[in-house]
Amino acid sequence: MTDKLFSILIPSWNNLPFLKLCVESIRKNSMYKHQIIVHVNEGTDGTLEWVKQEGLDFTHTPENAGVCIAMNMMRTKVKTDYIYFVNDDMYMLPGWDEPLLNEVQGLSDNKFYISSSTIQPRHEPTGVGSLADYGDTVETFREQDLLNNYKKYFIRDWKGSTWPPCLVHRDIWDIAGGYSIELTPGMGSDPDFTAKLYFVGVRYFKGLGNSLAYHFEQKSTKVVKKNHYLSQFLFKWGFPNSTLRKYITRVGEPWDAENKDTASNIRRDCFRKWFKAVFYAIKNQYGTLKPVTEFE
Length: 296
Description:
Spore Coat Polysaccharide Biosynthesis Protein SpsA, Chain A
């Protein structure tokens, strides 16, 4: 038994200043108690010693194992019914957890995937958050200004929960099989997990406008060697990442918007992307590889 509500999974790769800020925000800005689990990739910056000192649950690999392996390892430490994925470069804003709990309690089953919304300093998360610059480093972070102002950013509830911060029931996670390690180090693992949830029966993909986090943006992914996730996704699922977002989960649309696209739109989009993917795969045999973004 545990008195914790969510198990918060945070993969981290030598990013201790941001990790400290993330954990601090969870501890002081949550309405409820939560289990915090950190996966320490390498930890050569003192992260491993710090999580031990803080008494956090953790897993560890001496090398950068990537997000997918990290998430699956942290799953073995989960003690609650709910798994909440947070990036280590996120700052959770006051009361972030209460709307999530209210949403879950209003559902009749556990077949859901629910995201919080983000405020970001550089790239506007169109339809799923707000653009506002309160700093993009720990040193430039204007925490008090953010705390004074975050409530003024109106974000409507939206369709298409895919990216963290996001919440799933542990039983649904297990049925879907967790994160796909063939996508290591993890580019494209979020939409892939969404597709896995869809194919095990989840249809409730919702983003909440009143559960908020500040996202410093890509403090780890910008330095990692990326996998070719768009082509991996296409050849794995038979349709491109963009089709999942646009026609199936409909990322960024207002939650109450009507779905108007037909199956023919989906087939047409898939055929076009498949044609391009096969064409460039053939070209690759002759030493010319088209950028993977052509498949999106």
